[in-house]
Specification:
Jelly Rolls, homodimer, DNA-binding, 38% helix, globular, 241 residues, alpha+beta, 2 domains, Arc Repressor Mutant, subunit A
Chain lengths: 241, 241
DNA sequence: CCCCAAGTTTGCTGAAGAACAAAGACCAAC
DNA sequence: GTTGGTCTTTGTTCTTCAGCAAACTTGGGG
């Protein structure tokens, strides 16, 4: 993690290049980025401590600088569903972008996270005055919508094994790190988590993973998954219909 | 249907009040609405003929004036999933709003539909120059996202009976008409359609509906459903977890 | 170093619902 | 009125996967 060793204070003097390569800010000049940074509140979150919770007033919007965030919804029955994962460089909590005034889900850091945030009241300022910010933000909304849509289709048409395989593939494509012998998911993830992403049980996920390990598709240990044969997993995820 | 008896030509001289009560245009004055109407292409679609198809270049965006539209996605395996229904007064095909240049799904009229459409190139003009248009459009995006999210959670956590019940309830809330003895879904809908909305089979939906009819929750005939005890259906939809 | 909590594996059983099958009902067109 | 296509119902069988239960593994904290 880039910033793990740095104190939060350092952000105050951080070079404007910090945001310069992140899509929503890519088109901006240094003075503009400086202005944006001056309005930002940097904050560190430990794994497990919610950044914001479903239903609360959306007072701020966020940018994840480092770490991974899990966006979850909890049903009345206590079931948890993981809606999506946020990776470094992405905006989140942007309820304002879609005309909402409460957060639709809860954001939980999976590991130590470093985030910037701004008051929601700044949203219209950003979209109106910073070139490309609105466009990029809506593109993010579009991508998430597309992903949700795909998952909906999967849930409706695919078997558990295919769904779990796709979830794993999605994770390595969004947040994979090349390692010797394959690609690993670069944040801690449990069978329970995978089952919350796919609408199944940890038991079933465990059985599937064991099976995959036996035929050489993955290698996993506690809270840790390496895909050793991504192609094989793709093939499996497309089986049967 | 309001316009069923009218020719399309009449739109050319339609009063500006036509759009005045529709949310995205609510804040506009008559000259502005006139300008928008002048850019619009009105068109009638018969049930079953696609307005646009998944994957095609998003050359226009649409407003549904009358009728009902079903937005579907088709898998490689040929399975169909109904993503949502559009009712009169709603924008659709607004890929531009979320930074896409192709349509993410196919739009099929369920009954005879009357739509207005504009070239996508006008999108930035509308959002920039017409007060409230952007805000309302993004609110629509937000609502659809919320609905999809809810369905995702349902698919992951609920049983078939609960899912189907909720689908029916959602339909009557979005597109219900009060009739003697209950609320009816005011467009034709088959068991197959309901199963495409809930990820089950027409057989299972048929069994469920028969059961519900027996205990007095609904009354249905060919392509036609009346909910006679909405409260009972809500109770049922919340059962078990 | 040991303990404990969190995470994982595995076996067994049963229920939900899909798949297969076939007949019946309704509607529109001829 | 007849015919054919679409939609619906109902029965039976079979698969998948959730539920329950219990043991095992792992790694961090005291």
């Amino acid at each position: 993690m880039f910033f793990s060793k740095l104190g939060v204070g350092i952000l105050r003097k951080l070079d404007e290049s910090l945001l310069g390569h992140i899509p929503p800010f890519r088109k901006l000049g240094r003075p503009e980025i400086r202005a944006i940074l001056d309005l930002a509140e940097p904050k560190r979150f430990a794994a497990g401590s919610a950044v914001f919770e479903e239903g609360l007033a959306a007072e701020r919007f966020y940018l994840l600088l480092d770490g991974h965030i899990r966006v979850i919804r909890t049903t009345e029955g206590g079931d948890q569903v993981i809606a999506l994962h946020i990776v470094a460089g992405q905006l989140f909590g942007i309820a304002a972008a879609i005309g909402r005034d409460t957060y639709p889900a809860t954001a939980i850091p999976v590991d130590d996270c470093l985030v910037l945030s701004w008051p929601t009241s700044q949203w219209s300022n950003f979209t109106a005055n910073y070139d490309g910010f609105a466009t990029e933000s809506y593109k993010v909304v579009g991508e998430r919508m597309g992903e949700m849509n795909n998952r909906l289709v999967e849930m409706a048409t695919q078997q558990v094994e295919q769904r779990v395989a796709r979830a794993v593939l999605r994770l390595i494509s969004q947040s994979g790190r090349k390692v010797a012998g394959g690609i690993e998911i670069d944040f801690p993830i449990t069978r329970q988590n995978l089952s919350d992403m796919t609408g199944t049980t940890l038991h079933t996920v465990s059985r599937l993973m064991s099976g995959w390990e036996k035929i050489g598709l993955v290698k996993s240990s506690r809270r840790h998954i390496v895909v050793t044969d991504a192609h094989g997993l793709v093939v499996l995820s497309e089986r049967s219909g």
